[in-house]
Amino acid sequence: MKIVFITLLMMGSTDFLSAVRSPYYLSEHHFKSNLNMDNKTVLEKANLAIAKGDYEGFLSYCTDDTQWTFVGEQVLKGKEEVRKYMAVAYTEPPEFKVEKLVAENDYVVAIGTISMKNKEGRAVDYSYCDVWRFRDGKMAELKAFVIEKT
Q1: How many CB atoms lie within 10 A of CB 58?
Q2: Taking the CB of residue 149, how many other CB atoms lie within 10 A of it?
Q3: CA distances (Å), 112 to each of 23, 24, 115, in order?
Q4: How far from the centroid of its chain's Cα atoms is residue 91's Cα?
Q5: Binning pLDDT at 50, 70 and 90, where does residue 117 land?
Q6: pTM confidence score
Q7: Residue 67 CA to its chain's centroid (Å)
Q8: How far apart are CA 114 and CA 95, in angstroms?
């Protein structure tokens, strides 16, 4: 990006628009914009994809080596394991309400409730606290504390 900026400074104003329209600049600019998206916004967009049933859209916000730990239950390693989990656990998009989102450095903590269908097709309500670690603007690790509401 610095090279592009220096090159633009050396060009006359008429060359600026042609440089901005170049595929190299656009891909660099797009990449930079995505990196500048804050982690809370990334998580909100990913959650929106889940709510719409767009699981592949959700996974696009995860690193390839994402790791999900459901404390006391199971650990999923990589997008493929998460994809398989979603195919079974999310036969219908879950309904969730995020009550709090707290971000600091590479972490976002989400606290809320979620309702998902169980194997029998009955909706089950849970309280959750998800601790997400981000790397390079993507969700790299989840530590989920999930408790069924009684």
Answers
A1: 22
A2: 10
A3: 42, 42, 10
A4: 20
A5: confident
A6: 0.73
A7: 13
A8: 6
